[in-house]
Amino acid sequence: MKSKYFNILAVIAVLGLIIGCFGMADRLMYGHLHAGYGSYVPWGLWVVFYLFFVGLTAGAFLITIMTYVFGVTRLKNVGTLSAFTVLVALMCELIFVSLDLGHFGRIYRFLITPNFSSLMTWFVIFTNLMLIIYLLECFFLIREKLVLWSTENRSGKAFYRLLALGKTEYTASDRESDNRIVRLLSIISLPAGLLFYGTNGAFFAILQNRPIWNSAMTPLLFILAALLSGGALITFLIAVFHSDDEITRILGRAVFFILVVFLLMEFIQFFVGYKTGMTSILTSLDLIVTGPYAWTFWLVHLLIGSLIPLILFITGINNPKAIAWACLLIVVTFVSVRFNFLIPDLAVYKLEGLEQTFSHPRLRTHYTPSVNEWLVSVWIVSLGVLVFISGIRWLPILSSEKGGVNHV
Amino acid sequence: MARILPGEDLLIRMQRDLKRSLAADMSSIKWSMIIDQAKCAGCHACTIGCVSENKLPPGVVYRPVIEEEVGTYPNVRRRFLPRPCMHCQNPPCTKVCPVQATYQNQQGVVVVDYTRCIGCRYCLVACPYSARTSDFGEWYTTDTPDAEGKMVGRAKASESYEAIPATEYGKQWPKRGHGSPVGNARKCHFCLHRVAVGMLPACVTTCVGRATFFGNRNDSQSLISELLGSPRVHRLKEELGTKPSVYYLQ
Fold first, then answer.
1. Percentage, residues of chain B above pLDDT 70
2. I want to staple A121 with a disulfide (CB 3.0 to 4.6 A). Which of A157, A259, B98, B131 is the partner?
3. Yes or no, beta carbons of B122 and A358 under 8 Å apart
4. pLDDT in tens, A201-220
5. Residue B118 touches chain A, beta carbons under 8 Å
6. Which of the residues B40, B68, B99, B237 would you substitute to probe the A interface, choosing the one with the greatest number of A C-beta atoms within 10 Å?
7. What pTM was estimated for this model as a whole?
8. 3-class secondary structure, B234
9. Which domains does chain B have, with CATH numbers?
10. How confident is the model at residue B117 (pLDDT cuts 50, 70, 90)?
11. With contact defined as beta carbons under 8 Å apart, do A244 and A238 qualify?
12. All domains in chain A, ordered by first residue
């Protein structure tokens, strides 16, 4: 990664960390006191970001599967980058979810008294499983370079030796063994990952009192949304960091196709929803298209996040720059898709008249993220960016030349 | 004639029913509540009684009374629907709790173990009756000025009421601060701490219209058992299959 870009991104990330510190301090001292959500909209911006990061892992997950399970050699030189992206996205996701808990200190309860009939328990199991798998996979993918760098005369030698767990020699049999381990981990990650994304969708779909979520289509939409945002992210990263035009073009076509299918599915969801005529569904859908945050749907998601990328894809499907821009727009605006998935279904009173009976800001269905929620989000996203660019800069994540060097 | 002459207060009868149930086999008890909408005057005494009994902080409510206006002027009527936790026999909230912090006790009451709850609020999202609220750690006295001269200031005002913990679930909770139940899901628990010592839930005793009935539905001699035979009985959102233990008389 070029020093100039690294420095710019690092300065932005550090600034974000400093600004976000105020929110983090408030969160740690006062809990959820200054959060904007309440009892009728119990989840807010942090859960939106958790969903966002779940999606971002999906594209990179697919690349690692294609590379190390199905042996698509063309993608091999972006395998490490993909695995590292999954790892950082999972880290951000876990921080968001942890901070959303009322009693973060009691997460050990998942081990002591787990309820296996709850999909949240399975979500925790699969998230941690993915985290362990990708942590190990990243390690074995970069181990050869770590050992090499720890023996070369370069700055940070001790650090690389520490990361290489003191190993000083890397033989051909080590390479073979690491190859096998990475392949094995990737094979395990395939069912684990599918269950992970499926569980995330089913987590919402099983709630019978939630009109839009309670549908067999939700897990499908979830997987598709994850593929779209994650695919767009990894395509953008490959276009920027690898400058591999051929892979960018292949992935760009895939993202274009997924975007079209996603928009079609979204249209079907609205069409079927409106045609049912059920008040609860209509109210939730109306909130998306005409509610106070309708601009996030029309302007951010449909115009900036869908229409402009579609035009960019159609007019420049062979142009890596156009593809990179289209993917960047999809990724950045995808927070609005997650917001419009989560909030409108919560923001409907389940019993008519409940809104007038006991008045308190926590007992309303109108939700506006508080400054504190934004600050905490800025802190976590900045941390994610800093970890990511630091990894790119100081760890052997990227192949050293165009076309790539096979790390494994 | 029985309607005109003063008879035994329904509370006395329910209290007697309660003591009889408590004296018998505890495992045979299934606590239930019946709310007579025709008798409810919409006074909200039950809401306030509950808030006071359980020392509920701002934004936490166990038993709001929903008001509904029916018809068009001049033929307008008002209907009231007190909404405690339904204590469903097939509760959607307990199934989603990842750490078994909320469950049905032996008497069919859906309870929350404050020491286990991690505050994920999944149960709030799963409840079809919006009967659960989260304690965000708010105080009524946040904006009260500090003491000046002989004035009772914020600290003293809070110390004399809201800082004192309620005895929910029959336990002595620590003084209100950052610990549980702050950060937890909270809900109506049929005032189990009162019931355990032979007292009726606060909402039942404070109901001026005697519209709320409480007792063991498995006790055939109880008033609640008698009322359950009424053709006026219905339950909220029956179609969801949650089988609430709270019944309404229309």
1. 98
2. B98
3. no
4. 999 999 988 989 999 889 88
5. yes
6. B99
7. 0.92
8. strand
9. 10-249 (3.30.70.20)
10. very high
11. yes
12. 3-394 (1.20.1630.10)
